[in-house]
Specification:
Length: 691
Amino acid sequence: MWPRIKQKLKKWQGTLLITPCIAGLIILGNNAGIFRILEWSILDQFFRLRIYEPIEERIVIVTIDESDIEYVKQWPMSDRVMAKVIRNLKAQKPLAIAMNIYRDLPVEPGHQELVQEFKYTPNLIGIQKVASNPVAPPPILKEYERVAADDLLLDTDGKIRRGIVLLSEPDGNVIEGLGVKMALRYLENQGIELKTIDRDKQVYSLGQAKFVPLSGNDGEYNDRDMGGYQILLNYRGGLEKFLHISIKEVLENHIPDNLMRDRLVFIGAKAPSLNSNFPTPYSSVLLAPVKLVPGVVIHANLTSQILSAVLDNRPMLRATSKPINWLWIFFWSGYTTTVATMFIYQRWVTVVRILLAGGMVVTSAYIAFSLGWLIPVFTPLLAVGSAAVVSIGFVLWENLMLSHRKFEEYAHTLEDKVKERTAELAQANEEISALNHKLEQENLRMGAELDVARQLQQMVLPKPEELEAIEGIDIAGYMDPADEVGGDYYDVLHADGLVTIGIGDVMGHGLESGIVMLMTQTVVRTLQEIRETDPVRFLDTLNRTIYKNVQRMNSDKSLTLTILNYSEGRVSISGQHEETIVVRSGGYIERIDTMDLGLPIGIDDDIIDFIDHMTVELQSGDGIVLYTDGIPEAFNLNKEQYSVERLCEVISQNWGLTAQEIKEAVIKDVRNFIGEQKVFDDITLLVFKQE
């Protein structure tokens, strides 16, 4: 039992060692905050890549830009101008007004006028800054407890990713953040109140939404980042995601009808000169100007986040705890290390699996983000990359050491192996010599066979004087055996005014093919001598004879064969072979497909049902050209075939010549086409013209 365990541990020692080391180093670096900015930067891209977020219809933002400052002629704007803004907004009957402008000191003229507006606008909320460099709220609004905290939380890279829910003042009182206070006003009007789920853990609910505070054990944050009740901001977007109007349009009362009725209204600056714009996740854009978001829009985003979570079931945003993140890093370190152990045997598969692992890390993080959770991306990717590099290096090193050990072992036994190999080579040399002797004898025998077959093939061809003796037609034939004799056959027989022409091609090469060709010539001549003119009986008798002889030879030879019977300008064609080329006077070509006129001879004992024939009428100057596949299938050195089309073109161009001259023109063109290429098949051609 223990030896088996030790063997398995040794087999997986690399994985068991590398996985915790890689994961441990990354976790230590993560806890030290080394990777937090890189992690945030990647997660920021999810906000930019998120699918379309609709415009928030429950909130209107009144913006103050550089042109608005010029319009009011001073900044801070006078209390009288501010009072007019509030009056014009109040006339629109909004649900609440958030004044995201510090008003701790009077700005004459019109201070008393503004105080009256503060006093008699019960849905107006002012701001104060609680943390560093505190700014007091308007006294009258403080008195009526209509003040919220304007503080914004900056991460170490200067971006705002968190929002304030509650914040403790120096006197111990707790104040709500501006975005939260506005959201509670809206939900209170909807009859939805805050409920406590766990007072000790500060977990609360509003309708169907649950609020869990961000802690130093979550995500990339630590205890130094904590203060007050914080949550992660699930941004909807910038100013373009909210209804908005300029303060100039409000002062001039150019407010669209019902724009603000029963809505939450935020008033705040976006002018760059007021330094009220801040970096957010939307600022993480490479090769593009940094996009800053006004502070008032950040507060509006927090309000929208709460309202959407409560009323629309849009997810809040939470970060997974550090132990879960550590397990996530450990998992991907272990997975990659395990996959990398197969690098020696399946290199590309291993690389693809590692790349897929990186894709799964990013995809799973984006899916989690869509569901309201932030899980690490950079550190798992770092674990995948580091584990891949270290593990593959370890595997290569192990393989190198193994090869080195095998080489040393081989070196120790090299002399013995050389002796053994020398003896084996000597024995093999003797066997090769014996085989060479046998091959020489076999080559001599085969050469003799081929010579005999070549002589037999030439001996039975019709003589030129036989062809010249046939009256009424001009006929010329040609056959050139290949280097390895094939089974091409052609014959021209004449008796009692009937000319019988046969052309065929036996499958394969060598002596057997030559014998089958001779048998075919003998049977054809016999049938012609007994005056068998019916094409069906002719081919049926021929097939049965050849089939039985081939079976006796224990051979599988067969041949394609076409028989033509010519008499007084009429030609009967039967049997399956290459196309029959009919040439009309003037060189016009007709190609007859013989596939339906029979079957190969010798392939079966009964082919009578497949035999057919057709008749062609010839006039003076008409004729027929027959050939075997050695012509159209001849190759040149460029691996190009001669083709039937080229054959027809040469025949047509030379049809005005004699049969002998036409034959010579075709053979010359074929030889020029082939060039120095070896001839692999017999070349057979038969031309006859009616005079």
